[in-house]
Predict the structure.
Amino acid sequence: MADSAAPPEASSDAPYREMRARVREIFDHALSECSIPRALGRKLTRDGRYLQVDETIYDLEAFTRVLAISIGKAGYSLAENFAGPLGKELTGIIAAPGAAPAQLPGFQYFSGGHPLPNEDSLRAGEAILQLVSGLSLETLVVFLISGGASAIAEKPIRSRISLADVVQTYRTLVHSGAPISEINAIRKHLSALKGGRLARTAAPAYQLSILVSDVPEGALDALASGPTIPDSTTIQDCYQISERYQLLDRLPPSVRSIFDSRQLEETPKIGNPAFQRSQYVTVLSNATAVNAAVEQAALAGFAVDVENACDDWDYQPAADFLLSRLRELRKGVSRACLISGGEVTVKVGATPGAGGRNQQFALYCAQQIAGENITVLSAGTDGIDGNSDAAGAIVDGSTLERARQRGFDAATSLANFDSYPLFQAIGDAIMTGPTGNNVRDLRILLAYSA
């Protein structure tokens, strides 16, 4: 009689395969809980002439105009799901990456670039500033702001700063290794749109900012470089950041000259009259994804803990820290899960390959857990990781060996910032496609008994 048992290789790989599927289920559940329609449904209701946003009620008949400006990766979805209850009263501007799935009447559309601005980014920035200039107290402006808007809508503070100069500046900042809060501090002070300057232009109109946050909790003025929020950063911060990361030699002359001559202009702060009639409501943030992942992991029978202390750390110490915490957590339990929200940083080389911070983090983890009963997922909620079309990757104790069998050396891929081909070859790249949303990254670490 033929032996129906699985071959030893398949049998020994079964726990790994099971946990790769399990960690993906946790991540997919978190993504589903971060949907725009669900988020707006929790925070917004309309009853006739009254619009309730969180605990504030707006009498729409008290305004002669209601404008909506939706910018960011979730620009299309936010506008569509907000415009539904408002109906024909709403006009405005939508700036988001890619082609619009459908067009709402009364809106101008711009296909802004991300992660680097394009011509439409500058056209969007100019159009937005023109639309909100000279408004009165009888106008309500609703800003629908999501991650990526820094690049998607832009207008340089000086006319001599060209699009090519803006792109070079953005590229320098993104590759500097600086956390997003420091990157955006400089973006704010080089933009006519950011750092509360959009709110200052729209004043004295009533302003409502509905936010899908991809920045650290408590740092909302970093979201989209804070176009409608009082800026907590200063010109002195910018000068110090430029020195800390040795940015000046890599900036274009039109931008570098502003730093060299100390001609940065300060952005509006808390207490500025521009924010007198402003309300801010966060409908989605990284906490939404983290809490949903916790819920799903607990349902799957894991002892769960959350560790966000490594937010904005370099990927290597962040991975070492989280793996150490996971190994502590697994003591005395058969199934442990550690969930970490936020982002890690990667300072890439001059000629990086294909991949992003999540895949770089995951592949480094693979080196540290070879042969162990540990599974790690790291992925972005926007569905895009760096310059690849993956959201991130899954690794476990078998990753290095499976990669070796496909002709890949993990150390070489790490050194070349070229993790995506490896993960694609072994089938562990996470492919979601662009989600039309972004609430930062999610890392899910599982440890289990054999």
